[in-house]
Structure formats: C-alpha cells, structure tokens
Design a protein that fits this description.
By secondary structure, this protein is mostly helical. It has helices spanning about 1-5, 10-20, 20-25, 30-35.
C-alpha cells in the first residue's frame, strides 16, 4: 500500500506527527509523497496466552 498507492493505512503519519512535530509542520501537505518514499521497518512482539479448541463448531445445518 505504501509504495504502490502512497497510502498510510496504518496511521504512521499520526505517530510521526506526535514524535516529530517540527518535521510534520513541514511535511503534512506532502505526507503521502514523503511516506511513499520512506523505508519502514515493522517489528511485531506478541504473546500467546493460551490455546483454545472448538468444542462445538457451528455447522450450516445449525444456523436458522
């Protein structure tokens, strides 16, 4: 989405605005252009708190 459409679908602009307000004032009018040229690294941290199982799955026959 970033490179192909220049779209900031995850709200990086909002975070950028909060962290770098001086740059944001200079770039807010051309944010989509600047954003499409930026390198973005995403790091994901997660925790699996438990595992689950489906005890009684919903079948089409059960839905009325």
């Amino acid at each position: 989405m970033q490179k192909e459409y220049g779209a900031d679908i995850f709200g990086f602009g909002k975070k950028f605005h909060q962290k770098y307000p001086v740059y944001w004032r200079k770039w807010h009018d051309v944010w989509n252009e600047k954003f499409s040229e930026m390198e973005v690294d995403v790091n994901v941290h997660y925790e699996i708190k438990g595992r689950g199982r489906i005890v009684s799955p919903i079948l089409k026959a059960d839905v009325k």
